[in-house]
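Q: My collaborator sent me two sequences in one message, no labels, and asked for predicted structures for both. Can we handle them in order? The first one she listed is below.
A: Yes, handling them in the order given. First sequence, followed by its structure tokens:
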Amino acid sequence: MKNIAIIGSGSWGVALAVHLAKMGHKIKIWSFQKEEADLINNERRCKFLPEVKLPENIECSTSYQEVLKDAELVLQVTPSKFTRNIVKEYKQYIDVTKQPIVICSKGIEKDTSFTLDEVVKEEIPNARIGALSGPSHAEEVSIAIPTVLVIASKDEELKTLVQNTFMNEYMRIYTSNDVKGVELGGALKNIIAFCSGVAAGIGCGDNTFAALITRGLVEIRKLGVALGGEKETFYGLSGLGDLIVTCLSEHSRNRKAGKLIGQGKTVEETKKEVGMTIESIDNIEVAKQLSDKLGLELPILNTVYDILYNNLDPKKAVELLMTREKKDED
């Protein structure tokens, strides 16, 4: 059994902690807030997963040093926009020869357009890094709903370690060498999930969602390949798989956020009602900047950008997409 450090006490970090603790691993979670740490330690609960009773072999602390001490595996599970600053704070406690870091968050750093593995590598140049992604709602992982994920890394030992540490009868882990593709698939699908929510908010139906997922995948693939990912990766778990689950499930905070926008809420009202980080809103602007720089034609991305930043009415946005010039399917 392993000693595992989880940096981040949100729903996904705690869900992974519950899964790994049930397998017998010893888990230490880092939290930014003492109140969250106290809730986990004293009441065995997490405010984001209120129905789940946390196993006794989970501890939580606000001290990086305490959480990272003796850890054999480190899971980075904080919102993407906080990744760099948090890594800066704990990197002094990392032993790069013994403590590989697995990125479990999904996003792109706004200021640099870096994927999160690039952020960590810049801060900890010799770190052993992997990225864990795929269709996985915290609410379901925490109650042992069968889930399949992919671990991407250039480090063969790290991939084997993650498979051996995570896999059981209700979690299966595949491996990939395409870190860039896996990271980008996870980040970019949030944008299409947001669009799916907008479509739900204005009353669209199943035909629309199927079209949005299909054409959204084309845009994810185009941008992802242009940024260095492998085409096949975007048809796998971290691309198509994650896209389906986030576009169609009520668990998805990105879909929920889009739905609120479609119903007429402002961005600030939406953030307040969702109550957790909305990665899609954070990533739409950077994805638009990247696609413009690369000269890509991504009409769904361009349209949702205009909804958020240029006051385009969502119903008008659908009309504009549907009446674009005729073309072959690509």
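Q: And the one she listed second?
A: Here it is, processed independently of the first:
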Amino acid sequence: MMRRLMSFAEEYISGIHMPKMRITDIIEIAIISFLVYNILVWVRKTKAWSLLKGLIVVLGFLLLAAIFNMSTILWIAEKSFSVMAIAVVVVLQPELRRVLEQLGQKNIIFSFLNPDSAKARGRYSDHTIDEIVRASFAMGRVKTGALMVLERNETLSEYEKTGIGIDAAVSSQLLINIFEHNTPLHDGAVIFRGDRIVSATCYLPLSDNRNLSKALGTRHRAAVGISEVTDSLTVIVSEENGKVSVAYGGELFTGLSQEGLREKLEIAQDKPRDDEKQARKNIFSRRKGGHNAETANEESGT
């Protein structure tokens, strides 16, 4: 048996060539892995994901054409390849520009070395969430329409530029004053970045989702529209009935209570939820309690 194993090792394993790994090779592999991962994450969050699925279908069709030697189709594909490459760049131009903007705004080295630091402290403070909830229901009681967009991972710089820059701390009084009727800043959306109001009177893309109710106005369609093209979360206060709604991930959640709105806004904080913290505390308590019980049993001799 051992002879067979040794002969197998000599015949197959000894023939495997193991290249020498240098430190620069390891660094190069890490850089390429980091770039490929971020490109895949970017593709997954943008329209490039649908385009990628379409390209996979086209490549599958070309593979069949190559297997069955369909020379005319292969000739057309070869001649149109350069045109298709230019078309992809044109179609993805807004996404590519957004990626370059994010690349210039982010501290890549810090986020790579400490990726969980921002998530641990949360993107928005509890004070900001409290002020948005307070302002939303105060405006709802007097039926003042409002549209508030909270930026998350994808930058809203493109839409921020359509409005008027503010750069102010978040407060319910300021929000109520911005959306007051017949004031210069009441029309359009307010954009939040972190614990700051960065812009007001911003224009948002309208959703063309036919499943939305016809009774919804432009404000609600704009909120759903921005949630379809970015990962932002938008709070809407209806001018007709004073109800508070949230648009997130292309979906509209209407008629929220203060607790319901707070739960939705905690999504934008990107920090561990209270139930997850409580679950970890319960696990620790059970472990500690079990250890104490075992210690007591040992002392009592049971």
